[in-house]
Amino acid sequence: MESKVSGFLHEALSGEAQKAIFLPWIAQSFEPSLPLLTEINRAHVVMLHDTGLLTSDTASRLLAVVDELADTGPPAFTLDGSFEDVYFNYEAQVIRRLGQDVGGRLHTARSRNDLQSTLDRMRARNLALSLIAGNLSLRRSLLDRASQYTDCVMPGYTHLQHAQPITFGFYLAGVEKGMQRDFDRLLGAFHRLNQCPLGAGAMAGTTFPIDRQFVSALLGFSAPVAHALDAVASKDPLLELLCAALFVATTFGRLAQDFYLMSTFEFSTLTLPDSLAITSSIMPQKKNQAVLEFLKGRQSHILGALVTGFASFRAAPYSHVLDSNADSLHWLWQAADELVDTIPVVDQVINRATPNRERMAELAGANFSTATDLADFLVREKGMSFKEAHHITGRVVRLAIDTGLGVADIPPELVARAALETTGRMLSLTSEEIADALDPRAAVERRRSGGGPSSHDMESLIEQSMLKLAADREEHKRIGSSIERAGHRLRTRAAELRRPVTASSSARPHFV
């Protein structure tokens, strides 16, 4: 059987290759590609017409069929692996409806290389905007909840050991700061994605007098990709988006891990609703935090897609080849789509997690998490070096543990003994001084150095974060509106050129 797509190849693509490689690839990507291919074809036809490369009649007939196929959707196509890819399957339908003379002109002055690169960037651009929207939603939820719990004292941990008292609001505001950087990475990836390869041709441009700037603007891109070879050779902007997505999944995965521990019986500092848990098939009492487990695991999907992408580019030539330009994206779309769908679940977790104030306060006052404050007191009020105060306080904690005393039970005599054993000098503190130094709520409020958990610092932190959130929302709105306006201009211009296909318009078109 002869090739359906080439006058040079003597044989059609083998059935085995079609079944194993090409048909699965086409089937997987056809439906999400069709709306984007519709936009690209409209823009290309409009540009060809406005630069004098298509007659009005030909442009009208092509646009009419592009619209028909868009309206019918995937049912308009019977996918055929021997047509090699999405575009040749699409073009076959156009030619079937309009004939070779008219339908065959759709691909004037372009290659599948620049076409597919443009389609991939548009698809990734949409994902970037969805991830940015999700990021903004999560940050708003975190800041709202942080404002609600600025007075909810809890232990802060380092190495999963009690460190210093903080508040639940302070913790949530910290996670939001990480998500601010996630936004910046997503936005940077978007701007590098938002350049149009169309017009680069196979890899060296075209001999036709096209207008790359015009078609780029019609598709909502900020500019054409400057270098034709680079336009078709590079998928690094898509992999950069995937890297940014990995940070997104990692940030909320770390929050999920913290909530996972906090919701255990042993911690009992956080409760999540039953609607975000599952049960056991054998143990009737079980409330398993499976949603949190899946949230923790989502970054592995992104990482797997990223490894596939970079491995496909290893030692790849700097040009268009399918191992790097197609196979590299095999898992990207699924992993990124999953991430977009997961973000509303993260939002539910943030908004429906309920801290146990009493348990948090109990743990904040236990296990000597305010020891640093006692050392700081000795430096401020007794003129000691911090090193000396650190040693004395460490000895106080050891003696208290050895004698079975809790934080609230430490008497002046024990502090005096610790100082004598450590420095050889007596130290006299009152019970009130010790109690105030070791009080977790007072310890939180003393931290007013900037960026701390005190109500003074938290007010400033939340205000700053709200201002950045507002600015980031405006930027997201601006770039989304710019793409929407471009789409409106494209649809309007295409409608001006289009008219219904009739028998009387079947005259052979020509270039003008």
TrEMBL record:
<dbReference type="InterPro" id="IPR009049">
    <property type="entry name" value="Argininosuccinate_lyase"/>
</dbReference>
<keyword id="KW-0456">Lyase</keyword>
<comment type="pathway">
    <text>Amino-acid biosynthesis; L-arginine biosynthesis; L-arginine from L-ornithine and carbamoyl phosphate: step 3/3.</text>
</comment>
<keyword id="KW-0963">Cytoplasm</keyword>
<feature type="domain" description="Fumarate lyase N-terminal">
    <location>
        <begin position="52"/>
        <end position="304"/>
    </location>
</feature>
<feature type="domain" description="Argininosuccinate lyase C-terminal">
    <location>
        <begin position="368"/>
        <end position="445"/>
    </location>
</feature>
<dbReference type="Pfam" id="PF14698">
    <property type="entry name" value="ASL_C2"/>
</dbReference>
<dbReference type="GO" id="GO:0004056">
    <property type="term" value="F:argininosuccinate lyase activity"/>
</dbReference>
<dbReference type="InterPro" id="IPR022761">
    <property type="entry name" value="Fumarate_lyase_N"/>
</dbReference>
<dbReference type="GO" id="GO:0005829">
    <property type="term" value="C:cytosol"/>
</dbReference>
<dbReference type="InterPro" id="IPR000362">
    <property type="entry name" value="Fumarate_lyase_fam"/>
</dbReference>
<feature type="region of interest" description="Disordered">
    <location>
        <begin position="440"/>
        <end position="460"/>
    </location>
</feature>
<keyword id="KW-0028">Amino-acid biosynthesis</keyword>
<keyword id="KW-0055">Arginine biosynthesis</keyword>
<dbReference type="Pfam" id="PF00206">
    <property type="entry name" value="Lyase_1"/>
</dbReference>
<protein>
    <recommendedName>
        <fullName>Argininosuccinate lyase</fullName>
        <ecNumber>4.3.2.1</ecNumber>
    </recommendedName>
</protein>
<dbReference type="InterPro" id="IPR008948">
    <property type="entry name" value="L-Aspartase-like"/>
</dbReference>
<dbReference type="GO" id="GO:0042450">
    <property type="term" value="P:L-arginine biosynthetic process via ornithine"/>
</dbReference>
<dbReference type="InterPro" id="IPR024083">
    <property type="entry name" value="Fumarase/histidase_N"/>
</dbReference>
<dbReference type="InterPro" id="IPR029419">
    <property type="entry name" value="Arg_succ_lyase_C"/>
</dbReference>
<comment type="similarity">
    <text>Belongs to the lyase 1 family. Argininosuccinate lyase subfamily.</text>
</comment>
